[in-house]
Design brief:
400 residues, mainly alpha, 4 strands
Length: 400
């Protein structure tokens, strides 16, 4: 409300009843319609003006949007069912788009968490700002902006990994630490919301060194490269996206599943034996080791694999010991199962042997053990992932 100064003659009844920054209310007889002595009557809206409250318009807009979404899914489902004879999840219109939305979040995870490291600028900008301004020593001089950045960061990781201004000023964090907090928060949310099969695959690919194949320098001469079609199907399988363009396996009577589980376990076509032999050649040069590839999505181990990482590998290790220990004892040998899960997670006993090999190679090559270890896992998992992707492709389109 505006009060003209030319009509404001009596200021004795003016009282400031509320004040906040630049907003304040005035109480005065000059503010009353008709004056304090008269009857206050509200002005009548003109014929051309709208009496609809803005809030009502917003509510109507939201209702219309929700109704349109409901009509879209109902009409689309009817069309898919009647015109294309779809059933189950296939009746969802644009099914692939809607089912792949969670995996747009999945790819933002770091490699160690099973993602592709495709970081979101909006999610990690606050971590970058907090780290840079605190490390530069200007944090105490820009407390206002620092507080805003901390608030944005806490909104992303609330409530588990929250930080405060005092702690970051006292001990400036590095960006990697803050980004890891967000990755952990995102990872835990995905685990909570995922199906049992997705939990099993996510826990497997987030195991140590499972993602080493993604950081290997491609080299055709060393056999460390993936052709474009193989790489594309490998990434889709790695992220749990739909890999079954056809419903029928081209090598056996079974039906393909969208996660590619049948393709990487199918006994027909020789892919399972070829993959086993390739990994055996790469690992068994210094000793006779029992190599095995196991599958977290196997119905026999799925319940455990959806709760505990590398549980499928542990079950296979125990089975190998039970089968081979008596024979090995007779020959004076020690059974060492070299078990890898299909997603690249290696069993504890295999990891111990690989670590021992890496230590010796690091000494002889004058390289750090971590570098050698990453090279070994990278080479092994490139062969593993290539074999899995090739098995999937061969059952969608027969390879010449």
């Amino acid at each position: 409300m505006q009060v003209s100064n030319s009509q404001w003659t009596d200021r004795s009844n003016t009282v400031v009843v509320y004040y906040r920054t630049e907003v304040f209310d005035l109480t005065s007889c000059q503010c009353c319609y008709g004056g304090c002595g008269g009857t206050a009557t509200a002005p009548t809206p003109s014929a051309g003006s709208s009496a609809v409250a803005p809030g009502i318009i917003g509510i109507v807009f939201i209702v219309v949007i929700i109704a349109a979404i409901v009509v879209y899914f109902i009409a689309g489902s009817i069309y898919m069912s009647k015109q294309r004879n779809a059933s189950g999840l296939d009746i969802i219109p644009n099914r692939t788009f809607w089912l792949e939305i969670p995996f747009l979040i999945w790819v933002q995870l770091s490699l160690s968490r099973g993602g592709l490291g495709l970081r979101s600028l909006s999610h990690h900008s606050s971590a970058a700002y907090i780290s840079s301004i605190c490390s530069s020593g200007f944090g105490s001089k820009s407390v206002h902006h620092l507080s805003q950045a901390v608030e944005v960061f806490n909104n992303l990781v609330f409530p588990v990994e929250a930080i405060n201004v005092e702690s970051v000023l006292l001990s400036p964090p590095i960006q990697k630490t803050l980004s890891s907090k967000f990755d952990d928060h995102l990872f835990n949310n995905l685990i909570t919301l995922s199906s049992l099969a997705d939990k099993a695959s996510l826990l497997s690919i987030s195991s140590p060194h499972a993602s080493a194949w993604l950081s290997v320098t491609p080299s055709e001469g060393l056999g460390l490269h993936l052709d474009p079609p193989v790489f594309q199907i490998a990434v889709k399988w790695w992220l749990g996206l739909d890999t079954s363009e056809n419903s029928q396996c081209t090598l056996c009577p079974s039906v393909l599943d969208h996660l590619g589980h049948h393709a990487v376990t199918c006994k027909y076509g020789g892919d399972v034996v070829s993959r086993h032999n390739k990994i055996r050649v790469e690992t068994c040069k210094p000793a006779a080791l029992d190599v095995s590839i196991t599958y977290p999505l196997n119905p026999l181990t799925l319940l455990e694999a959806g709760v505990l990482a590398k549980s499928a590998a542990q079950v296979t290790e125990a089975r190998k010991h039970q089968a081979n220990d008596p024979k090995c004892s007779e020959l004076g040998w020690v059974c060492v199962p070299m078990v890898a899960e299909s997603y690249g997670a290696w069993g504890d006993e295999a990891s111990s042997i690989i670590s021992s090999i890496a230590s010796r190679l690091a000494t002889s090559t004058c390289k750090s053990k971590s570098v050698v270890l990453n090279d070994i896992y990278g080479r092994l998992n490139v062969h593993l992932v290539r074999a899995n992707a090739t098995a999937i492709l061969s059952r969608i389109i027969p390879l010449s």
